[in-house]
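job 3f2a | input accepted
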Amino acid sequence: MESRRRFQSILLLLIFSFLAHLQLAEAADRTALVIGNGAYKSSPLKNPPNDARDMKKNLEKCGFQVISLLDVGHRDMERAVDNFYKRLKKADAGLFYYSGHGIQIDGENYLIPVDANVSSESDVKFEAVNAARIMGKMKDAGTPLKIMILDACRDNPFKKSFRSSNRGLARMDAPAGAIIIYSTGPGSVADDGKDNNGVFTGHFIDNMMKPGWVIEKVLKETRKGVMEDTGNRQVPWNASSLTGDFYFLAGGSIVVDMPPSSSGSEDASKPSSPRAESNQKGSLSIKTAPPGAEVFVEAPDGKKMTSTSPVNFGDLEEGYYNVKAVFDKYQPQSKKVKVNAGRRAVVSLYLDPVEMKGKLYVKTEPPDSQVRIMNIVDKFHNGIELDNGRYEIEVSREGYRVKTEWVEVQNGENLDLYVELEEIPASPAPAPVVQTRKTPNKGDTWTEPVTGMEFVWVPGGCFQMGQTGDEKKQLLKEYSEEQYNTYFKRELPRHEVCVDGFWMGKYEVTNRQYRKFKSGHDSKSYKGHSLNGDNQPVAYVSWNDARAFIEWLNRKGNGKFSLPTEAEWEYACRGGSSSVRFWGNNADDACKYANVHDLTSKDKFEFDWPNHNCNDGYAVTSSVGSL
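job 3f2a | predicted structure (627 res):
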């Protein structure tokens, strides 16, 4: 009898421990950074953006606050990591997921931004993000649980320029409380997949949503699926120093030995102490993800109770209770649960978001062009309602080149797409001469005939890129430490970079020049000041807009155009100078050379930059070439 009581006490203790762990898994503040890079100039990847979107969607269902970036450059990756670090300080669980190109150099793993300019191995540490730095940030933040998932073992896109033949990623050690998950083994290459996801991520995102599966089981089942799909060529693995269990979804309903409260309603997160009496009434604890759902409970005798989750109903008669949770923009969930005398039933309900349809509007030039959506059977009309997903849009008209674009509908948003077709010339025109000399000289200019953009020849050479320690001290006098870390920290250390000669636009692209490409573009206004002047720099254009503009220019056949690399941009802006700014070290001289905010403008603008003690005469942007 004594041994039975001791066993019951041990069992009760274990049940309490499990409940406490479940509550931690559900209530913990979870934060995640998700990045998917696929739009590389060389060796592009199809699936990483899809992988990142689906991972973000699942993590949000699992209670994570997610920072998500797609096809992102180096500077924005670094900023996202710093933002992630700030959130980690307040989190109980942190997760970093990356899908895209990743390579190892001298045993270090680097994640490759889409704008990386790598011609040799020595460039990688300046052009890519070190995975160890991200794990270091998670460790420094003091986050108890740290998860890193790297689906970044695609083949090296720069291998032709490298002396070494390393493939895949190198092994990293996981600090205490961390697990590092790789899509394949050390030195091996992962499959990007033939469907909408990479082979590894496709299995992982399915398994992580299985209620009650610890992360090790999620990985084990993912490994089985990947090995089967690849004929054992790809074997996911992990390095772990976890000291407890982690569930993406705890799931289900759990009944534990604890008496109900004597009151009708209480905090569901506070357990009561066990009692020995066998005739006690039961209680019912209800939690929902997301919390705050309206809860409806129907007792065996037909009595109905309502509240908001999380909630505990006490003094309940033994029997089966019908539980329903309702939350705006989420699908209702129901469950029947048995309440026993002297026990508390704990019910966890996970609500799936209601997928709302979005509308697609397509404006074409010429206006009477035919529009088709290639991957659905429905005939297109402006305002067509579409489910969440990606759609291939084809626009065509006789005498014009067919154009296709992919768009994505998310969260019921309405999309406006503008497509301008290129007319097929009646007969091929002779290719215009871009330059009059085989080897341009420094300062030579050339005008692009369609837009009138003026270009200046910048001869190749080597320069010191970045900033010195003395420059850092100077900038910290002018800016706060937070501003410095956000905008300038990445410029350390100064290092030599060499570039080939190139043509550089003399001025910013103007509204007049951009409207040769998109006639109806509106640069809008700022605080009542118009930005639409013909010679003002074009505003309200995205990176995708810039890329489309460049593709349009390239089709005109007057030369090969591209955005400058970061190194080319700094090389051209410096113009041979070695000071903090190309004009010198005095910040107050800025308005002689650049269109900056100043103290004496008629209108005050709230920026986080210092005001300069000068007046450049322009409330907002000036016409190009004014300074």
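job 3f2a | The first strand starts at residue 30 and ends at 36.
job 3f2a | closed
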